[in-house]
Backbone:
């Protein structure tokens, strides 16, 4: 607004108001209005700057342009109308505060580091305490054990001769029991009771019967039995075979005078004589006194008559057959050795009401022992 126009208007106003008493009237100029308006808008600009203090510069560009247009007044100066200047000053102030106090962020980080370090220190202290207690407990336990050993030393028993003998007896008994168990598990045939041996009576032959006897003999030989094994001969239906029928099946050729004085029941024995299987036979006799002289007369033929009881072929080296007398446990025995080594012989004896024939001296004695002991 030009100054000349302003002066003209003031002169005109003065002329029009000459008639008014101006002693009681205060003069109000346009400058007063400008001052009032300037104060109002300046206060509004400050409020707007405070509201926009926390906003980011990038997100408030549009809103700041709008506020410029909204609060622009031609009567105010540019500094009071532009709240952006105030906002920028506040932003610079906050930045200055942050730049002047960089320790605020670093202090928080250092607190976190101190907290973590404190936890690690406490964990290490706890582990050290646990280790110290464990070491102390182990030390006390070990020292106490040593003290107990010193107070009560272990008793060392000295073996006397009696103890050694007792231990030896126990070892011998245990070995015998073990051997007995092994024998019982290995033995197929009983040495205490009579066993049953079934033979072929439908299509018999002395050769097949001898083959059966050889098989049984090998089984007994492998059983390590020290006693003679008794068998009762049966047919296919487990019926006992009579002695006369057995003589026919096996090829034993006794005279009719001898057979008629013998009963039907008999037992066949297998015995391991020093690892060689020998056979014997026990026949029930009717009358011992009547039968004894009959057997004595038949001694010359007994080698041929009892040949089926020899599992191996035996050839005598003697020209003349002469039986001799012997005695075993009070029992009279008649015998004849077939070879010089006396591994084969023909022996016979009477015990009770039985007539015994065997193919070696040891077999005869073993059978007599078994019968005297009641078959055990």
Residues:
């Amino acid at each position: 607004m030009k100054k000349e126009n302003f002066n003209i208007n003031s002169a005109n106003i003065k002329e029009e108001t000459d008639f008014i008493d101006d002693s009681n009237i205060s003069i109000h100029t346009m400058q007063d209005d400008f001052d009032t308006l300037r104060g109002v808008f300046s206060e509004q600009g400050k409020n707007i700057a405070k509201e926009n203090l926390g906003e980011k510069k990038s997100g408030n560009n549009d809103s700041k342009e709008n506020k410029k247009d909204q609060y622009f007044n031609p009567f105010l100066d540019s500094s009071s109308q532009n709240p952006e200047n105030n906002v920028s000053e506040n932003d610079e102030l906050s930045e200055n505060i942050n730049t002047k106090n960089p320790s605020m962020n670093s202090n928080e980080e250092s607190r976190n580091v101190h907290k973590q370090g404190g936890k690690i220190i406490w964990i290490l202290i706890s582990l050290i305490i646990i280790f110290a207690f464990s070491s102390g407990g182990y030390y006390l336990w070990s020292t106490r054990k040593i003290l107990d050993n010193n107070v009560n030393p272990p008793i060392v028993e000295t073996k006397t001769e009696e103890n050694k003998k007792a231990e030896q007896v126990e070892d011998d008994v245990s070995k015998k029991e073990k051997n007995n168990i092994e024998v019982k598990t290995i033995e197929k045939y009983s040495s205490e009771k009579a066993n049953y041996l079934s033979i072929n009576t439908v299509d018999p032959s002395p050769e097949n019967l001898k083959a059966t006897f050889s098989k049984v003999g090998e089984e007994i030989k492998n059983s390590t039995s020290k006693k003679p094994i008794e068998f009762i001969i049966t047919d296919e239906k487990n019926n006992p075979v009579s002695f006369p029928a057995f003589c026919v099946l096996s090829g034993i050729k006794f005279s009719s005078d001898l057979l008629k004085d013998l009963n039907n029941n008999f037992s066949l024995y297998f015995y391991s004589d020093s690892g060689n299987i020998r056979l014997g036979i026990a026949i029930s006799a009717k009358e011992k006194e009547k039968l004894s002289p009959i057997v004595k007369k038949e001694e010359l033929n007994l080698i041929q008559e009892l040949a089926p009881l020899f599992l191996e072929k035996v050839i005598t080296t003697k020209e003349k057959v002469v039986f001799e007398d012997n005695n075993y446990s009070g029992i009279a025995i008649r015998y004849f050795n077939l070879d010089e080594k006396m591994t084969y012989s023909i022996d016979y004896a009477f015990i009770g009401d039985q007539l015994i024939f065997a193919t070696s001296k040891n077999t005869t004695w073993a059978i007599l022992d078994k019968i005297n002991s009641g078959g055990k």
About this structure: The chain has a mean pLDDT of 75. DSSP finds 13 helices and eight strands in the chain.
